[in-house]
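Entry 14. Ran structure prediction on the chain below.
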Amino acid sequence: MHPIVLLVADMPQSCEIAQQLDHLPIEWLGAHDHGEVVRQLETEPRIECVIMGGGLDDRMRGDLVGLIAQMRPDVCIHLKDRASGPHGLAPFAAQIVENILLRKREREAA
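Output, structure tokens:
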């Protein structure tokens, strides 16, 4: 069973990123606003981490971090910088998944 990652970004961007990273053994879920984040967290207990893009405004990012931490304190939240721009989200997400999530699973399996 593949780990589930919730990608929070502008809707067209999150779909595009998931397609770019479909070679990774991850199940991607997307959310683009407060309501969708709540729905995903409530309906999918297997979410292992959240990756948040830099395109969301500061107020929304702060609100979502607080919401995610309250609803799912077991889930790590990774915030992408703004300097790398929208095209930096796919490489950022790939690094998180490959270097943190998948390695953790490998260690646990060993």
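The chain has a mean pLDDT of 89. Will compare against last week's run tomorrow.
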